[in-house]
Structure formats: C-alpha cells, structure tokens
Design brief:
By secondary structure, the protein is α/β, with parallel strands linked by helices. It has a single domain, classed as Rossmann fold (3-Layer(aba) Sandwich). Helix content is 36%, strand content 15%. An 8-stranded mixed sheet has the order 1-2-4-3-5-6-7-8. β3 (26-30), α1 and β4 form a beta-alpha-beta unit. α1 runs parallel beside α14. It is globular. It starts with 6 loop residues before the first strand and ends with a helix. 43% of the residues are buried.
Amino acid sequence: MDYTAPTTAETNGITMEYFEQGRGPAVLLLHGFPEHPFSWRKQVDPIKDAGFRVIVPSQRGYAGTDAPSDVASYSVKNLVADLSGLLDALGVEQAVWFGHDWGSMPAWYSGVYAPDRVAGLGSLCTPYFRWARPRDVSDLYGPNHYIRTIQEPGVAEAILGRDVEHTFRSLLRARGYTMEQFEAAPRAIRETPIGVLVGEPQLLGAPTVSEEELRFYVDVYERSGFTGGLNWYRVFARNFEEAQGADFTIDKPALMISAADDWFFARGSTDGMEDFLPQLEAHVVPDAAHWLAQEKPDEVNSILVPWLERVFA
C-alpha cells in the first residue's frame, strides 16, 4: 500500500484521508498518537489476505485529514461520528473497529455511541474503561504526568516539535524498562513526565522502525505538526460529560491484546473489562512495550487474524 497516496471522503463536516485494501467484511484500523495509518503497515496485508476489507483512516487532526481549531470537536463521541460517516461514504453498514493507543477510544466507544455500526471491536494496549468525572486531569494522572502538561496549549507542541526527528527516534522503540523495573524506579520516572516522550530520560529500548520508516513519520509531522493529535488529550471534561448516563455494556465480540511491559498503563488496567464486555477475549504479549503492532507484528497478527476469521469471516 502506498501510504503517500490517500483517498479522501467527506464525513461529519471534515475531509478525512483513508487507505483501503481488500474485499470482504470491513475492518477499521485506528491509529493513536503520534501515529499514522502507516503504523498498521505490518497488519494490513495479513488481514487483507485473510479475506477482509481493511480501511485505515488518518483520524481527525492527523496528517492530511482536517484539523479543526475547535478543541471540543475532538471528543470521543465526535470521533466515532467521524468514523461512522466514513463508513457511510464507503457504503459499509458494519465494521470491526480495532485501535491502538488513543485510536482505541473511538474503537471501544463505537459500541457505546454507534453500536449498530459495530460487528466487533478491540484494542492493542489501551483498555476499555468507563468515564467517571474527576475533579481535574491531575487527579487521574498527577501534576507532573505528560497528559497534564499537554493540557497547556503550545507547551507539548514546542517540546515535540523542537526536533521532530529526535522525537520519533526517541519514541518509536521497543521494550526497555520492564514493568517491574518501571514500578521500582524513582517517583520522578514513575510520574511519566513529558520528557519521556523525547527520551529524557530514555526508558525504551531498540528502535522499532528502520531509517526509511522513521523518515516517513518525520516528513508527515513536519508538515502537519502535533496539535491535532494533542487535542484528543484536551477534551477529558467533554468526554466525561458526553458519557454520563450511557450504557457501557457492549455485548459484541471483543479483543484485547496487551503488552506485558507497556508501563504507559498501570498493572491491572485491564482488570474488570469482562464485566462490561461479556464476549471479551484477552491476550498478553510478553517482552513487549507500547508500540506493539510494530515491535511484535507476528505475535499480534497471530492473535488478531484468527480472531477475525473465527468470529467474522
């Protein structure tokens, strides 16, 4: 697939880039931050070859997809509306919604906000949880956590955009600290400050991308900047408000693939998911960190593709 030549569709008031391959039941692959449909490059062909239609969009705020200035428009409910509109534009009634990182939020919440469009749903790394209104983002993550820093407009943009190549060279790496090492680290590290995203300190291991692949990400983000993706982090209050009163039980086929050493999520983050996802199938990939699709593609594909075949083909 040529990830420099997207197709576009009009959806929910924006123009959205997407890439597509294959025929059969539809599978939406939803990237996270700071990523691109290119992040799924090692999954697209195996899924297509198994008899599925693979649709991989650049989500709101990313790459060449529109990035509205209204931060409220990046709420998870509106992201689900974007993707439902994309399915409309492509003539698709239902799809499997599968995400990584922040892309997992519209994937999971498709079952809350657009259940009739969902054949199944799942995630790499990011657990499904119910929104419960906190007093402040700091109550969730602490005052020094990178998500708290992102709340200040322009601050994270300056840090990540100061040297885009350095940012991606620092971030797109395999397991470094194990979960046990991270939990035993000094508090200043366990707080996960924004410096961790640019290798200050470097807690990750060997690169998960080649020099050519690294260049792809750098070229995309030197053109687009980081603000669109960062705006997803800036709508916590709206997400909480929009979710009040929702039915969080999703009785659809569901798949959770965790990385054993993804310390961006605390140990036990997936506990209790089965209470709200009665058809949940859960797996843990050992010796792996957050960029699971790129670090351990064979292991991911060996779980994801048979699940798709078993449940949907």
